[in-house]
Structures are given as structure tokens and as C-alpha cells.
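In this section we walk through a basic example: taking a raw amino acid sequence and producing a predicted 3D structure, encoded as C-alpha cells. The instruction is simple. Fold the sequence below.
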Amino acid sequence: MGKLYMGFDAGTQSVKVAVYDENFSLVASHALPTQIDYPQPGWVQMDVDNYLDNCVECMRLVVEDLRSLGRDPAEVAAIMGDGIICGIVGIDENARPITPYINYLDSRTMPDVEALNAQKLDIWGRETGNPEASPMFPAMFARWFLKNSPAFVEKGVKFVHNAPYILMNLAGLKAEDAFIDWGAMSGWGLGFDVKAKRWSKAQLDILGIDEKYMPRILKPWDIVGGLCDAFAEKTGLAAGTPILAGAGDTMQSMLGSGVFEAGQGVDVAGTCAMFCVSTNGIIPELSKPGMGLIFNSGTLPDTYFYWGTVRTGGLALRWFKDNVALKPGESAYYGQLSEGAAKVPAGSNGVLFLPYLTGGSGDEKNASGCFLNMTMDDDQYVMWRAVLEGIGYDYMGVADQYRGAGVPLNRITVTEGGSRDELWNQIKANMLDAEVIRYRNAGGAVLTNCVFGAWATGSINDVKAALARVIEENGRYAPDAELSKRYRALYESRTTLVKHDLREAFDRLVAMRER
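The resulting C-alpha cell sequence is shown next.
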């Protein structure tokens, strides 16, 4: 009946697997939530096998759906996945995990980050585009493992990201065959040459990380092997099905949003709310110390982008729904919250939410999540709007940096789960004073993976053209000039509050937590 392509997205809060046909129409999909652990304040970690198990189960369920639709699972011509670019796990020679999986939400490396940044080395910015270390960088997690994990020091062979971990297990590979694509490589933040697409010995020597621990660097569309017999039996897919090297989630989301050239803005509204802009390379003004932006390589050759982030942006939404509104497992409740919040005036009656649930960064490293300025008149809808706006204020700061470097940002594409919320899209348009565009394929990373599967196996010869055919606009949000002006005034007050008025209070609050 024709070829099929399977893709997966191993995100922070869930794993999604989908199959698309040769016209890139969705045939079947399934998703399962992940388990996130918080062993102590500032620490966030996961079991990487939770990713593998979820992916395999979703693959099995998708195969069942294919059979019920009269499709032969053997028609799946390729498997490609994407995952988190800022997160690693240490594995032994048999590719088994011997450390927890730590990602960008974790802050345990902050003291090490500060000590490294105090050296003021210029090699970071020159080779990576990232002038300073960050507690979300895998390079810092690797240093932490080497200092604090006796098991890894004794038996560790490689550090790998979550999508490559899944893919190499599906292919039955050992640690000696561990890999990473050149986009996810740049998620390390430090330790690589972003233009040459290779590990940097000079940087790794400074970091104290032996290059033997680093996986080999591949192109995202390279075929690393075929589905092994064990996982063919577990999933119902044909043994030997080609498996690709995979890509970073942000990189694939940007391509799936039609970002094919420099100068385009994208809001990746996932767990880590990321505000990205595509470039032709390093922009010195954006790669200065103190900017707080991160520079990465894209999936395709000679593509690059900067991003600013609210680390718990999307996670704050889930936290509020599950822990405040007490509606865990009820995704539809997001819509009810936004329906009520749409009736709340812009500015949330003066209520502010600071989305620093896993800590702040830079000069505001001790910032914590909190609601401010509430009265008896406020309810969960006011609080929900304050959460949405709280993330938006941090976006405004990033947008100011881009515009200050000459990037106009008159139009911004939104993608991933948060893009489905009409209220939040309109709030962003007003706060950023820019037109916001949404495409039908919100969260297009999985579809993009399937397009690459078709390209890698010779079924198509132009990835961009194939994506352009299937991307369809289904939402446009214009800014309201008066509301943009109001948000700008509120932003200035909020910035003063966070950067000056509350700094001493945050320091005192952190000390209270540790007693």
C-alpha cells in the first residue's frame, strides 16, 4: 500500500511516537508521560530507561493501530527520533545506564558554573558561540558525574543524550558505537567547535573531560543500523528496519515550523519554553557574556540559531494544573483554565507569577517561583493568566536582546504543545508586539523526523520542499497596540522588582529553605 515512516519525540514530560504515510499524512500516534524526580531542591533527574520503555510501548501500540487499519508494519521504511538537547546519561560498555539522566531543569552544577565563568575564558564564545557556562549544559553534568559518580568513574564508557540512547538500544548497539548528531552535539553548550562540527580537544582539556567519553558525531540522517531482533519482537516492527542517528527536538521543531532561512523567530512552547531566532552563524552582539542566550547548530548544514529560555516555562503550566488546580492527568483542563483567564484583564489585576520553580540564573540565581500581589478577589483564573504572563515577561526580555542586535522579530511562529492555546498565543502577540503565526502541524518535530526518514531512504530528494508542502497555517494573532503598551509598562516594573527589589528577599528565602 506504500511506504510508512515512524518518528518519535522524547520530550521532558512525554514520549510521542507517530507513523506518517508517503504523503506525510498522519496514520497513527500514541504518547505516554514520563516520570520526573526531584531528590532535593535544585535537583531534577530521570531514569533514562523510562524513555526507552515508553517509546517501545508507544511503538507497539502504533503497530497495533496499523494492523487494525489494514497496514503491514513491514511497510515502515525508517525510524528516526529526536530528544532533549540539554541532558545526558552515563552508560557502561553494554550501553546500560549507570547514572541518572540529568537535563536542563537541574541546577546542581551552579557552583561549578560560577567557578568556571570566573575564569573569563574567550574560547567558549569563539568556538561554540556560548561565552559562558550554564547549569543546563551537559558539559557541566559530565563534570559533575566525573566528580560525584564512583560508578561512572569505575565503569563509565560514554555520555549520551536521551534520543540516541533510545535509538542505539533499538539497533542493539554497544557503547563503543554511541553517537550524537551535530545539532544535539551543540546542546552540550561547551566542549565543541560549532562550525567544524567536532569535539574541541582544547575545550575538553579545560573542562577535564576525556574525549574517550564523547560519542561519535554523525549527520542526523545517517543510518546507524537496523532494528534488532529483540525490539522487533517487542514492537511488532520488522527486524532490520533502518534506524537514523536522530536530531535535537528544538532543531526539528524549527524545521517543522517552516524555518528554512535566517532571521526568523520561533517560540518552541514546550516544557522548557524556548524563544529562538535563526541566524547565518555567530552574531557577536548576541554571544557576549551576560546575554544569557544559547547558540546551537541546526539539523541541516550551515544552519544556526540562538535561543533564550524559561527553563520551567511549560512545566509551570503542568505544575499549576496538577498541584494547584488539582487536576493531574486531565489535559482538557488547560482549556477550561484559559477560558476563564480570557475574562481576566491584561496584567492579571496586578498579580505576578515568577516561573522560577527550579531556580533562577545569572544574577537572579536564587530567584524562586511565587505569586505576588494577590487579594481575596483573585481566583485560579487570575492565577492562570498570571502564569501565562509570567512566562511572557521573560520572553519580552529575550525579544529585546534580539531586536537590540538588529533582528526585527515582526513575525514569530509558535510550535509544540503550548501553541494550541488560543489565549496564550494572543497574550504573546500583545506582549511581544509581533504577529504570531501557528501552523496546523503544531509540535512538528515528529513529522519532521518522518520526512528525514523518507529522505535517508531515498524516497524524496528535498527535505525543505517536502516540509513546505505539508505545513499549513491555521492561526494568526495580531498584537493590540494598547495592550502592547500596557505590557511594556508592566514589564519595566516587573524587571525592577525582580532584579533589584526582591534580590535580598530571594537570598533570605533560599537560606530559610536550607535550614
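Looking at the output, two observations stand out. The longest helix spans residues 380-404. The two ends are 65 Å apart (CA to CA). In the next section we compare this with other chains.
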